[in-house]
Design goal:
The protein is an all-alpha fold. It contains 9 helices and no strands. The longest helix has 34 residues.
Length: 206
């Protein structure tokens, strides 16, 4: 179990670095398309796939991070702990699926059929797809808020780190505007780094 906790700490730190790097790479390589809100051109930018592969890897690596965190929290977490763990895990896996779809499918769809991309792209007009995006966001917010409450009650991690981690995850997960998501990502990365360091330092809150 100790090894899994250390893996969880390590992957939290790796995720913080990769998420920060990949997100600001999007701004660096695709700012022209973002500022013009030309999303079809953005997903066809040569940098789109490699940068989003890093985002996809980051999302997948967060899974052992959450597992390591849960293993370190007090055993008496009860129903709240179990619920927080499974909802957050579901949210991350769901987001990874969406990330895979956005990374590999969007460029092909945008190139082959602009009309179809309008229906299934950034602001999908397809009602079913739009609903699943909204639902995935709701699950993401619920999971990380529950996880935030659980870690707050545990007194294991610094309160400021819990605030950054939780609020950052919420803003990044559901923020539609690029600046809002950027602020969320910045907070989330700081929180993740602190969570990782705390997990790597045995039985310490600092």
């Amino acid at each position: 179990m100790e090894k899994l906790i250390r893996i969880g700490g390590t992957t939290h730190i790796i995720c913080a670095v990769l998420l920060f790097f990949s997100w600001f790479s999007i701004g660096a390589f695709m700012w022209t398309e973002i500022s013009a809100q030309n999303f079809s051109a953005m997903v066809q930018n040569p940098a789109w796939i490699p940068v989003n592969i890093i985002l996809l890897v980051t999302t997948v690596l967060l899974i052992p991070g959450i597992i390591g965190l849960f293993l370190r929290l007090p055993e008496k977490a009860g129903v709240l702990g179990i619920t927080a763990f499974y909802v957050t895990l579901l949210a991350i896996i769901w987001y990874a699926g969406i990330q895979f779809y956005e990374t590999f499918f969007w460029p092909v769809i945008a190139a082959e059929s602009p009309a179809l991309f309008q229906a299934v792209g950034f602001s999908p007009t397809n009602k079913l797809l739009f609903f699943q995006f909204i639902l995935s966001g709701a699950v993401w917010v619920t999971g990380f808020i529950l996880l935030g409450v659980l870690t707050f009650r545990s007194n294991y991690i610094s309160k400021w780190a819990i605030f950054f981690y939780t609020i950052g995850a919420v803003l990044f997960g559901v923020g539609m505007a690029f600046p809002v998501r950027t602020v969320g990502l910045f907070l989330f990365c700081i929180g993740m780094n602190k969570y990782g360091l705390t997990l790597l330092k045995d039985n310490s809150v600092y």
